[in-house]
Amino acid sequence: MSHVLLWDIDGTLLTTARAGVFALEEAAREVCGTEEPDFSALRTAGLTDSEVAALVIEHCGATADPETVATLLRTYERHLPDRLHWRRGQVLDGVEAVLDDLSGRPGVTCMLLTGNTPAGAKAKLAHYGLERYFDGGAFCGDGDDRVTVARAARELALERSNGAEPELVVIGDTPHDVRCGQAIGATTVAVATGSYDAAELEACDASHVLERLPEPDRFAELLGLRR
User: Fold this and answer.
1) pLDDT (tens digit, 9 = 90+) per residue, 53-69?
2) What whole-number distance in Å separates Cα of residue 224 and Cα of residue 227?
3) Residue 148 DSSP SS3
4) Cα–Cα nearest to 149, from 20, 1, 49
5) Is the model's pTM score more than 0.85?
6) How far does CA 69 lie from the centroid of its chain?
7) C-beta atoms surrounding 161 within 10 Å
8) Structural domains of the chain, count
9) Per-residue model confidence as pLDDT tens digits over 134-161
């Protein structure tokens, strides 16, 4: 049986050290006319970019109608590549070793399941040198909430498997990732490398809860992957 591993980005693969907040603040200046926006305290982990944009617009005292959300997102995307240089983020421990190992295993495909927009995901993966590992995926734009995005990811995985039902695995760092994996019948791997600790992730009944990604062979053994 083939395996399709669906990866979250922020807090799972990498951290931008919240550099994206600078792009959001610049977007709020341009779109909402907010002179000194400060979104550093907004809790956005696990939300789609559309949900974050709506939260930002409401925080600025404006109405988060679809047109304003879309305009803010396009402005955010335009500023994000530059703002990623403003903080020293990093690829998280163990990620590249695991992805390198998975790329050499037969029947294993790595895709994205993320609340980022396609342009936002591309900017982050390119900045940290991870884009080569992923064969597309589902993004904000496939749906405003994570469950809808997860269903789009499942349909894409079926297409890539020529209609054969693959074993789906969702890897993420928030309860939102766990819930969207459960919604599509996937094995869920929750890593406590973001803003939620292991106890909070265990409370969501994830299939596996890890403090961080383990060594590649251990990770493959956990998922029943063959060499």
Assistant:
1) 999 999 999 999 999 99
2) 10
3) helix
4) 49
5) yes
6) 19
7) 17
8) 2
9) 999 999 986 678 899 999 999 999 998 8
- Point out the domain boundary residue: 57, 86, 115: 86
* 33 shares its domain with 118: no
Residue 171 belongs to what H/E stretch? strand 167-172
Distance CA 183, CA 187 (A): 10
DSSP H helices in the chain: 20-32, 49-59, 66-83, 95-103, 118-127, 146-160, 175-183, 198-202, 216-223
Which residues span the domain enclosing 75?
Answer: 20-86
Both 107 and 42 in one domain: the answer is no
Task: List all residues 6 or more positions away from 101 whose beta carbon is below 8 Å from its beta carbon.
Answer: 216, 217, 219, 220
What is the residue-wise DSSP string for 13-52?
A: TEE-TTTHHHHHHHHHHHHH--SS---TT---TT--HHHH
Distance, CA of 116 to CA of 138 (rounded, Å): 9
What is the residue whose two structure tokens read 């559309």?
Answer: 50
Tokens of 219: 């990770």
In single-letter form, the type of residue at position 63 comes to T
